[in-house]
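ARCHIVE CARD
CATEGORY: sequence design from structure
SOURCE FIELD: tokenized fold
FIELD CONTENT:
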């Protein structure tokens, strides 16, 4: 039995072509071609990445959150991570499950918010830090970009070194061919003299011109290597600055969300107080109007009694 038939093949959920399980994407089970034609986006609510499965439907809400919106309505901000994904209660599903599994939330070492959960496992920490879910994802993406950049720089160095070695081997083979031709012609002293670039002629390797050219080449190589190192350091510093700016932007957005939430709570309390005051004033107005109507009735009855007694007195005399 061959290896192709022994390995189990699984169908892509989009084009139904069969591939090994390792080549399919987790969750959606898409092959490489379908993954390339459909982009990976972040969910508006839970902020998790998912792959769109249709070009006509460009919604940025994952299937799970879309079902929750239909069932429970639009979510509110989670009291821990401030992600707008709390469909039931005041906690998102991720923080509720983590609190049930790992205990109460602790402070994240990156964003300084009380939204991280200690798993008591150092292998789950990123770069030795206890981070929340958002900071973990952003730091992992930054580390992956830095690693990819360093690998591309190493590949470029390896290719340049390989091309230099191939060029040297080519020159050596050309010189060996020239030496073989000289030997075949019977010119042995020239073979002992040469060992030079055939374009430069038969120069002495210990001559001043040759030494000057070699020193100039070494100096140019050293200066180019210094420039490459400087560029690499600049790129690393820029990547570090980008990660710091992203972290600062994340902290600013979380602070703004907390401030907006506090202002909303304050406005709600003020609104409730004003409503209660309005209700009390309306009650007072109602009681005052009732008492005024009663006083008007009493005054009218007194005036009627006085007028009746004045008309009866002349008839008695």
């Amino acid at each position: 039995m061959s290896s192709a038939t022994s390995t189990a093949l699984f169908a892509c959920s989009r084009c139904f072509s069969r591939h090994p399980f390792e080549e399919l994407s987790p969750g959606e089970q898409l092959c490489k071609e379908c993954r390339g034609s459909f982009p990976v986006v972040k969910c508006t609510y839970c902020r998790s990445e998912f792959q769109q499965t249709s070009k006509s439907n460009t919604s940025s809400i994952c299937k799970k959150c879309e079902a929750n919106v239909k069932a429970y309505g639009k979510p509110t901000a989670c009291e821990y991570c401030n992600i707008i994904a709390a469909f039931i209660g005041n906690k998102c599903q991720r923080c509720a499950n983590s609190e049930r599994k790992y205990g109460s939330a602790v402070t994240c070492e990156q964003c300084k918010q009380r939204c991280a959960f200690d798993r008591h496992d150092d292998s789950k920490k990123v770069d030795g830090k206890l981070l929340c879910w958002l900071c973990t994802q952003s730091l992992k993406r930054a580390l992956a970009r830095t690693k990819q950049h360093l690998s591309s720089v190493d590949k470029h160095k390896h290719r340049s070194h390989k091309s230099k070695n191939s060029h040297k081997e080519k020159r050596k083979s050309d010189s060996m061919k020239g030496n073989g031709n000289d030997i075949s012609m019977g010119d042995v002293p020239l073979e002992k003299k040469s060992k030079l670039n055939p374009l430069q002629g038969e120069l002495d390797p210990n001559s001043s011109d040759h030494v000057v050219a070699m020193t100039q080449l070494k100096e140019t190589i050293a200066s180019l290597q210094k420039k490459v190192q400087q560029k690499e350091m600049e790129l690393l510093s820029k990547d570090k600055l980008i990660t710091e700016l992203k972290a600062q932007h994340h902290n600013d957005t979380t602070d703004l969300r907390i401030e907006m939430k506090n202002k909303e709570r304050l406005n709600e309390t003020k609104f409730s107080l004003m409503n209660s005051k309005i209700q009390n004033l309306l009650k007072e107005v109602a009681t005052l109007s009732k008492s005024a109507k009663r006083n008007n009735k009493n005054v009218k009855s007194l005036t009627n009694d006085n007028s009746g007694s004045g008309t009866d007195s002349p008839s008695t005399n």
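CARD ANNOTATION: The beta strands are 9-11, 18-20, 40-42, 49-51, 76-77, 84-86. DSSP finds seven helices and six strands in the chain.
SHELF: design records, drawer C
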